Amino acid sequence: MRIAIMGSGGVGGYVGGRLAAAGQDVTFIARGAHLAAIREQGLALRSALGDVLIRPAQASDAPAAIGPVDLVIFAVKLYDTEAAAAALKPLLGADTSVVTFQNGVDSTEVLARVLGRDRIIGGVAQIAAVIAEPGVIRHTGTMAIFTFGELDGATSERVGALSTAMRSAGIDHRMSEDIGRDIWDKMAFLATFAGLSALIRLPIGPIREDAETRALLRNGLREACAVARARGIALKRDFVERTLEGCDRLPYEMRSSMLQDLERGRRLELPWLSGALVGGGLYYVASRRVVVRTVELGLETR
């Protein structure tokens, strides 16, 4: 399978690296120092599930130079979605599919509008991975699960082909019959965790272990779940407690991508995460209690 990775950061770099190591024809689309490092030194993946070095690695910043592929794995930041979707058009052949592993809930609709709904496969990435330095992807912990499926819930040969490729690469994955619900399942967790962790500058460990911040996490999940249900998404009745139990199993040092972007002075996905829930009519808004608790914990507020 000929695959292009549109957005070769933590998520795209991880899944693309695993697929390339398994023999798939993968080209990484990147820019700047990251692109230069991949071209010169290859793409390195550092992970408790096994390190990988793709060298030489195929990398470019020009989709037109790559030409049509079988599959585009779309993993850019949410604020780049529309521009990146337009830029990838030279990658499209008659049967090219685009699977999105972005955060948020709007990606599939934006891509469908720009590229055509029939091309789009919805997806969810459950992984903590970042660009540690140019050309190097660091995966924290051992969770790396990719869920994907047709937007209408149908089975298809292309979803099966992607599953086969991921299986051969040793990538933990699941084919979904209700990808819309799976996307909202992650959104309700991520928007809450990302907002809270970025607000108080802490990874998941201290948040879940302190009684007050754990309560804030629980309340945030409840309200995010309410937004999803108001939008007609049937999240499971045990969503909140199940998600909290999942948080207890995450690596103590796991930081949301929003917190890592904040620490590095990068643009945030806040409008597409917290903002999307606000637009849904309900959202957990950090109250004065959070600010007070932040001061009590001796944390800097900015």
Report the end-to-end length measured between terminal Cα atoms: 47 Å
Number of strands: 10
Sketch the topology as an H/E string, one letter per element.
EHEHEEEHEHEHEEHEHHHHHHH
Strand % is: 15-25%
User: How helical, in percent, are the residues?
Assistant: 40-55%
Question: What's the architecture of the largest domain in CATH terms?
Answer: 3-Layer(aba) Sandwich
In CATH's first tier, which class of the largest domain applies?
Alpha Beta
- Give the number of helices: 13
Computed Rg: 19 Å
Contiguous runs where pLDDT drops below 50 for at least 5 residues: 281-302
Say what the CATH topology of the largest domain is: Rossmann fold
The number of domains is 2
Q: CATH H-level name of the largest domain... which superfamily?
A: NAD(P)-binding Rossmann-like Domain
Q: Could you say which overall geometry the principal axes of the C-alpha atoms support?
A: globular
Broad structural category: alpha/beta
| pLDDT averaged residue by residue | 91
Major sheet size, sense and barrel closure: 10 strands, mixed
What does this structure look like?
It is a single chain. This protein has about 300 residues and is α/β, with parallel strands linked by helices. The protein folds into two domains: about 1-175, 3-Layer(aba) Sandwich (Rossmann fold), CATH 3.40.50; about 180-295, N-(1-d-carboxylethyl)-l-norvaline Dehydrogenase, domain 2, CATH 1.10.1040.10. The protein has helices at about 10-20, 30-40, 65, 80-85, 105-115, 155-170, 180-200, 205-210, 210-230, 240-250, 255-265, 275-280, 290-295, and strands spanning about 1-5, 25-30, 45, 50-55, 60, 70-75, 90-100, 120-135, 135-150, 170-175. Strands 1, 2, 3, 4, 5, 6, 7, 8, 9 and 10 form a ten-stranded mixed β-sheet that branches. The chain is globular and about 50 Å long. It starts with a strand and ends in a 6-residue tail after the last helix.
